[in-house]
Amino acid sequence: MSTSISSEQETFRLSMLLNDKRYRSYTFQAFALFVLICVVAYLGKNLVENLAAAGLNISYGFLGEASGYDINQRLIEYSSQSSHLRAAFVGILNTLLVAFLGCITATILGITAGILRLSNNWIVAKLMSIYVEIFRNVPVLIWILIINSIFLAVLPQPRAFKGENPEASMLWDMFAFTGRGIYAPKPLFLEGSVVVVGTFILSILAIFALRRYARHKLYSEGRLINTFWPSLALFVIPTVLIFYALGSPIGLEYPELKGFNFKGGIYARGGLISLWFALSIYTGAFIAEVVRAGILSVNEGQTEAAAALGLRPNFVMNLVVLPQALRVIVPPLISFYLNITKNSSLALAVGYMDITGTLGGITLNQTGRAIEAILLLMLFYLIISLGISAIMNIYNRSIMLKER
Amino acid sequence: MAKNNAAFVRHQLIEEQAPPITERGVVKWVRENLFSSPFNVIMTLLSLWVIYSIIAGVAPWFINGVWNANSVRDCYDILDGATGACFAVLKERFPQLIYGFKYPSTEYWRPNTAVILLLFALAPILFRKLPRKFLLFSLIYPFLAYWLIWGGTPLVPVMAFLGFVIGVYCFRRFSANAFALGAIIGVIAANIFWVLGGYVVDANETFLALQAVPSRDMGGFMLNILLGTIAVALSIPLGILLALGRKSNMPIIKWICVLFIEFIRGVPLITLLFVANVILAFFLPPETSIDLILRVIVMMTFFNAAYIAEVVRGGLAALPSGQYEAANSLGLDYSKSMRFIILPQALKISIPGIVNTCVGMLKDTTLVSIISMFDLVGMIRGPILSSTSWNGVYWELFGAAATIFFVVCFSVSKYSQWLERQLETSNR
Lengths: 404, 428
Known about the structure:
Order of helices and strands of chain B: HHHHHHHHHHHHHHHHH
CATH superfamily of the largest domain in chain A: MetI-like
Structural class of chain B: mainly alpha
Radius of gyration of chain B: 30 Å
Number of helices of chain A: 13
CATH topology of the largest domain in chain A: MetI-like fold
CATH class of the domain at 93-152 and 210-423 in chain B: Mainly Alpha
Helix content of chain A: 55-70%
Oligomer: heterodimer
Low-confidence stretches of chain A: 1-6
Distance between the termini of chain B: 59 Å
CATH architecture of the largest domain in chain A: Orthogonal Bundle
Structural class of chain A: mainly alpha
Number of strands of chain B: 0
Largest sheet of chain B: none
Helix content of chain B: 55-70%
Distance between the termini of chain A: 54 Å
CATH topology of the domain at 93-152 and 210-423 in chain B: MetI-like fold
Strand content of chain B: under 5%
Largest interface: A-B, 56 and 59 residues
Order of helices and strands of chain A: HHHHHHEEEHHEEEEHHHHH
Low-confidence stretches of chain B: none
């Protein structure tokens, strides 16, 4: 027999780049890279040529110039003399504000609706599934506009609050719901308020310490300590005592009607409120589905096993069902938070000045720096998304480890 | 018969009796489902109150609705102080809501036909029990719909279709020997045919021509459906390719896909629409003028594809690795093992996710109203609400828009649940 194993003697031939599995992947990758470079070079060449033809250049100098426009809803000091960069920061804070508020209310709504949808109570369960289906299947932009219509069409203008027999009146003399937005009392921090706030934070820490201690006792000695009433006492008593001992250093500033508008207090524009509410109820419907799926995903045997061990219903929920359900719930929950952040860019439709409204809206239109502004805008959203994704991956890995 | 004197022995069976009233029928159901505990009683009463207040608020408004009026002032006159909706706006502006305000009114039959035919084209894809021959119509449909909606001579879509046919034929013919050779010859043949076809079309521009409607005249709900359907149809194959690319063991291809997916998923759709609207023109040669609608479709396709890629990747990851090994041990190459073994199973797992993403896409088509295209929401916010006769009719218009979207999206998600049950083959 003279046939030998050919592979040992085989030398590299050019045709192997296409026909041999070992080398073919290099051909494909080189080709893909080549195409990519060609596309990028082509787009870049066009960009340079187009900019040259239009007499433009890429420059971020506009960020330092005075913006010349006013922003009526802001968390930091800003005036039309401030720079475009400052305007962008106001926008970023506004985006984060509405995203943060939206995440909290959407979670509360979603968890409530998700649990109630599993209720034995037929009417409640049906009502919740109607809520979920209606809000999930209609675009969020339409919800934002519908809720904004309440401000445009239903709520009275501030001047309706004027006069001897006003057409509208404030709720408990604290809240004013007007077509321009909602006015609420604002806390005033006077001298000594630091101590009150400090006491409050300390008492919260004490509550955590107490619960830790109780759990330690439970695990080491099997002694169950009721933490509810002591926690409540710790929560309320020290802060209230210090508050009155220092002579009420924290007061409230009520909104007051001055001229044709309200002054003082916290002012939330209609745009902010409608965006916040619409994002909350829309995303809440999605979260409800995830929560329901998460709870259903826990095998019924788990509940029965826990009950057989003699755990009380709330312990079954807290110690057995929820930890397992959370593993299913949390990853999509976080992507819904990201969705809220990204959907908050719809603020443009109701005139709320978030980052898309300032940097991607007025700044872009005033300076004409479309490429720079949109790049910065995308960069901001990318940083937030990728940052949260990274945290989510770490979390996922941490709960994966405990799984067998 | 022996006489039994014992007083406590019953001589005959008692008639069968109905269970107590609290243990049967409606009463039992109500007691167990609505009033089983104090908490439940409170919840039930609360729900009843919510339902009552919604009905009490909406019913008079709905029932008193005015369907015949010329302006919002007429409505108020007819209502004469009573609460009532002004549905007349829907009646008067119906064509605008559905077709936009520029689409020629004599041509409304064309989009109507296109939508009806769309149902026929989708039927064999959606319902697997229909004969496979119907799929041929689904293949022809995109070209037919293009002709119906945009008008012009039917030669353009016919040539485009024939080009595809010739390209696929050449690919089939030559790919038996070498995949790459077949693909290259197919692409070249199709392009040659399209160039030649271009001359034919130029020579016969009026042949069987329908009135041409430019893209910027599309509007209303038609635009939403148009954008949604095209973006979804294009993004599913692209998304599957991206998912396969991301799972690939070729690092360069993998990283291109990862970057693309993560970038698209990291930014809101509205910024991508800004790119389409404002800065895409900077990246193209000055003489090209691509329709805004086409640029938007490209961006929406990319956007949806990135999300679909993640869903499909989840499906691929959920398959046990034994499936991949089984395909390899059968000696199937990559494309065959994907086509016959991996993708059918992975896609089945990902159907709910894909449908959710696509429903999301359809809903997101309303965002084009922000870059001043006149889709359903754009029509309402723009021409209709700012007109003097219908100024301030918010609820009726937005309510109608919400209803239209609800009907479409809800049916699609119901279909996907049905399909899931149909495809359920695992341990029942």
